[in-house]
Design goal:
With 263 residues, this protein is of the alpha/beta class. The protein has two domains: 67 residues, N-terminal domain of TfIIb (Single Sheet), CATH 2.20.25; 175 residues, Rossmann fold (3-Layer(aba) Sandwich). 32% of the residues lie in helices and 29% in strands. The protein contains eight helices and eleven strands. β2, α4 and β3 form a beta-alpha-beta unit. The chain is globular and about 60 Å long. It starts with 10 loop residues before the first helix and ends with a strand.
């Protein structure tokens, strides 16, 4: 059996297995925490004013965005489908002097009251783990429910308009660390016949003193275009969907902003 013919795992399994090594994809994780908080915080200020604001990071991973926003003074709550990732986010935040309640939570069934947050964030291409229109609608409806009226939605995803056109089968290797502590990360993609979904294999090569340990995680994504995501957001009760490109926002992925319509 070739590597790309092996079955993809569930998103929870993928991130449970990745949580301990996630930071190794960054050249400097703390620098990325600070930079992403600066960029996302600026978007929040532009839309809602200085704050501080109540923020839900509903796909927090190990806390890359949530920790920085908490350190910047926002009142952040974090959730993730992976309990392992959420637990690490909570621990990493505490180690940096930030208060970050973090729990395992499925964005399709959020355990928060209606109108609780000023901002809901889902970053790092998390929403495209949902593979059906019903699941995407369910998640976005939950994000709208927990936002106050005129609250801010922030979503970041890969540039799937371009990727669906080119249908790449791999990503260039990323090298993080220095000397004997270098980690190499790359991905292999196998596109489905529908041209919209793909199975991803995430490879990490970690030095072990005499060679390399290879860690492989598998999952599936739906390559949602800007138009598709905007339409889903409007159907869920958001208005004024607007896409910001990396050159405009400073964030490394396209960012969708939208406001919670009055119910």
């Amino acid at each position: 059996m070739t590597a790309t013919s092996q079955p993809a795992g569930s998103p929870r399994e993928f991130y449970d297995r990745l949580a301990g090594d996630y930071h190794l994809m960054f050249r400097d994780w703390d620098a990325s925490i600070a930079h992403q908080a600066e960029v996302l915080g600026a978007l929040v200020r532009q839309q809602l004013g200085e704050g501080p604001h109540t923020v839900l990071d509903c796909s927090c991973g190990i806390g890359t965005q949530a920790i920085g926003l908490a350190l910047a003074g926002h009142r952040v709550v974090a959730g993730d489908l992976s309990p392992v990732a959420a637990a690490r986010a909570r621990t990493e935040a505490a180690g940096r002097g930030a208060r970050l309640p973090a729990l395992a939570a499925d964005m399709r069934r959020l355990p928060f009251r209606a109108g609780q947050f000023d901002v809901v964030l889902s970053a790092d291409n998390s929403l495209p783990h949902l593979l059906t229109a019903d699941d995407v609608r369910a998640a976005l409806a939950q994000l709208r429910r927990v936002l106050r009226e005129d609250g801010l939605l922030l979503l970041t995803v890969r540039d799937y308009d371009e990727l669906r056109r080119t249908r790449p089968t791999s990503t260039p290797p990323q090298v993080a660390g220095t000397g004997d502590n270098q980690t190499i990360t790359f991905q292999l993609w196998q596109w489905h016949e529908d041209g919209e979904r793909y199975d991803l294999e995430h490879f990490q090569l970690l030095p072990n003193g005499t060679g390399w340990d290879t860690r492989v995680r598998r999952t599936t994504y739906w390559a949602l275009t800007r138009a598709q995501l905007s339409d889903f957001a409007v159907q869920a009760g958001f208005e004024e969907p607007c896409w910001l490109e990396p050159a405009e926002s400073g964030y490394y992925q396209p960012v969708l902003t939208a406001r919670a319509a009055c119910l």
